[in-house]
Amino acid sequence: MIHAVLTLLVGSIGGYLGLRFNLPSGIMMGALIAVAIFKLTVMEVDRFPAPLDFLIQVAVGSAIGLSVTPRLLKDIRANWFLVFFSSALLIGLGLLVGLILAKFKGMDLITALLSTMPGGIASLGVVAVKSGANASIVALFHFVRLLCILFFASFLVKWLEG
């Protein structure tokens, strides 16, 4: 249990620093980086105990559930075709790239698919841990994707604003 407490303490410090230094998804990425460094340099920790793992998943699911609003449902209803078409397109492309990674780069299939699927670091990270995939690789892929999106989006906004 002491390993779990130390991991949460290190993660909290990293999350605070990620937020303070404005990292993309600052709290999550700061915690991820801090715990990874801690694990690699100080103490080997594999997983949280089952009750704590359960609470973490409940917290992530609850946070996502809080984002659902009547306005969101109305927007989805009004644009259902584009919502589902763009989702299907992104999932299909993710499947294709994941299959290529698994076949030609030797990555295990589940890790490859979760790494290339559209989605958030938190939700796909939980799926990766539960499925036995390499959660570090999945998180890294999504972190790099997020950095690229933020980098290109800032230029796109400046270009569109003239």
List the helices and strands and how they pair.
Blueprint (H helix, E strand, L loop, with lengths): L1 H19 L5 H16 L8 H17 L3 H9 L1 H26 L3 H8 L4 H11 L3 H27 L1
What does the model show?
- The model has no long low-confidence stretch (mean pLDDT 88).
- The protein is 82% helix and 0% strand.
- The N and C termini lie far apart (55 Å).
- α6 packs antiparallel against α7 and α7 packs antiparallel against α8.
- It has eight helices and no strands.
- With 162 residues, it is mostly helical.
Task: Summarize the entry for a quick read.
The chain is mainly alpha-helical and 162 residues long. The chain has a domain at 79-162.
Summary tags:
162 residues; mainly alpha; 8 helices
Q: What percent of residues adopt helix (DSSP H or I)? A: over 70%
Oligomer: single chain
Compute the number of strand runs: 0
> What composes the largest sheet?
none
What sequence of helices (H) and strands (E) makes up the elements?
A: HHHHHHHH
- The averaged pLDDT comes out at 88
User: Radius of gyration, rounded?
Assistant: 18 Å
N→C terminal distance: 55 Å
Large-scale geometry: globular
Uncertain residue segments? none
Number of helices: 8
